[in-house]
């Protein structure tokens, strides 16, 4: 699970792990790496993990953060899990659209929608 | 006594930035404060911040790959009510922008890097490189709706 100094807030309910970012800006490479490591631990500790990453608190993110999300997506697939992204502001969504990563990730408007989408 | 806030929001400057998160954040805030004073919207400031962030991080990550961590990247900025101009220069050997693969191509979608230049080009009005490929010049023109 996330370590004490994690940049993530993690809650588990009905077999779904919801992750929120503590920081409004996901820019710092060292933090992004740490976030990736924390998410990897969550994925590895669960059978067929169902993970919702909420961007409700996020104002800015960098291409390095997108790269880390792609790594998380690959890892979750290796573990036969499912990943959903949610609560993405229009500004941040545009970053996903420009990079066409909105095709790679399953994105829901709210975390409740994301939780309800798991098969 | 000079007002530190006024200096902070200076509309132009040249900074040698170190590869340090606090230094990069402070630079971004300096540029954005000047942009806010010049009447740029939050969406415009989002665009400029993203492009500046990507340019500086790329300069350190790729340009300075083989250089000591202490080497600085030069950033020049100029903000007025019509446009924001940014020039980021690293001390590396340079690269050919045309050699960067299209990260939106199907076969590259799962690659974990290579999107910085695409984002800079998408958000800024004009992006160009010097001949050596170690300097990127970017201009953001204020949208008519904000004038």
How many independent structural domains of chain B? 1
The first-level CATH class of chain B is given as Alpha Beta
Please list the strands of the largest sheet of chain A in the order they lie side by side.
1-2-4-6-7
Q: Name the CATH superfamily classification of chain A.
A: STAS domain
Number of strands of chain B: 5
User: What string gives the helices and strands of chain A in order?
Assistant: EEEHEEHEHHEH
Question: How is the secondary structure organized here?
Answer:
The complex is a heterodimer of chains A (119) and B (147).
Chain A: E1 8-13, E2 16-21, E3 25-26, H1 29-44, E4 50-54, E5 60-61, H2 63-78, E6 82-86, H3 90-98, H4 101-104, E7 107-108, H5 111-116
Parallel strand pairs in A: 2-4, 3-5, 4-6, 6-7
Antiparallel strand pairs in A: 1-2
Chain B: H1 4-8, E1 12-17, H2 21-37, H3 42-63, E2 73-79, E3 83-89, H4 116-123, E4 126-129, E5 135-141
Antiparallel strand pairs in B: 1-2, 2-3, 3-5, 4-5
Helix pairs in contact in B: 2-3, 3-4
Question: Could you walk me through the main structural features you see in this protein, from its secondary elements to its overall organization?
Answer:
The complex is a heterodimer of chains A (119) and B (147). Chain A has 119 residues and is α/β, with parallel strands linked by helices. Chain A has one domain: Transcription Regulator spoIIAA, CATH 3.30.750. Chain A is 43% helix and 24% strand. Chain A is built from five helices and seven strands. In chain A, the strands form two sheets. In chain A, strands 1-2-4-6-7 form a five-stranded mixed beta sheet. A two-stranded parallel ribbon of chain A has the order 3-5. Chain A is globular, with a radius of gyration of 13 Å. The mean pLDDT of chain A is 93. In chain B, helix 2 (21-37) runs antiparallel to helix 3 and helix 3 (42-63) packs antiparallel against helix 4 (116-123). With 147 residues, chain B is an alpha+beta fold. Chain B has a five-stranded antiparallel beta sheet, covered by helices on one side. Chain B is built from four helices and five strands; from the N terminus they run αβααββαββ. Chain B has helices at 4-8, 21-37, 42-63, 116-123; strands spanning 12-17, 73-79, 83-89, 126-129, 135-141. Classes of the chains: A alpha/beta (119), B alpha+beta (147). Chains A and B meet through helix 2, helix 3 and helix 4 of A and helix 2, helix 3 and helix 4 of B.
């Amino acid at each position: 699970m996330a370590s004490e100094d994690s940049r993530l807030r993690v809650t588990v309910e009905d077999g779904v792990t919801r992750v929120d970012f503590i920081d409004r800006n996901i820019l710092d490479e060292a933090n992004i790496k740490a976030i990736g490591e924390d998410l990897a631990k969550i994925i590895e500790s669960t059978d067929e993990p169902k993970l919702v990453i909420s961007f409700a608190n996020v104002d800015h993110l960098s291409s390095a953060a997108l790269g880390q999300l792609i790594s998380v997506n690959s890892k979750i697939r290796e573990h036969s899990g499912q990943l959903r992204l949610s609560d993405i502001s229009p500004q941040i969504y545009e970053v996903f659209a420009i990079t066409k990563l909105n095709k790679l990730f399953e994105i829901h408007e709210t975390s409740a929608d994301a939780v309800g989408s798991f098969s | 006594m000079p007002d530190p806030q006024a200096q902070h929001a200076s509309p132009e400057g040249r900074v040698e930035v170190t590869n340090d998160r606090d230094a990069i954040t402070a630079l971004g805030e300096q540029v954005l404060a000047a942009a806010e004073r010049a009447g740029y919207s939050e969406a415009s400031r989002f665009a400029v911040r993203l492009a500046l962030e990507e340019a500086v991080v790329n300069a350190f990550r790729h340009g300075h790959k083989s250089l000591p961590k202490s080497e600085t990247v030069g950033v020049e900025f100029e903000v007025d009510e019509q446009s924001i101009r940014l020039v980021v220069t690293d001390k590396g050997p340079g690269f050919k922008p045309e050699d960067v693969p299209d990260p939106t191509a199907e076969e590259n979608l799962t690659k974990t890097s290579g999107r910085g230049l695409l984002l800079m080009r998408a958000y800024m009005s004009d992006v160009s490189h010097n001949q050596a490929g170690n300097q990127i010049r970017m201009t953001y023109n204020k949208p008519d709706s904000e004038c």
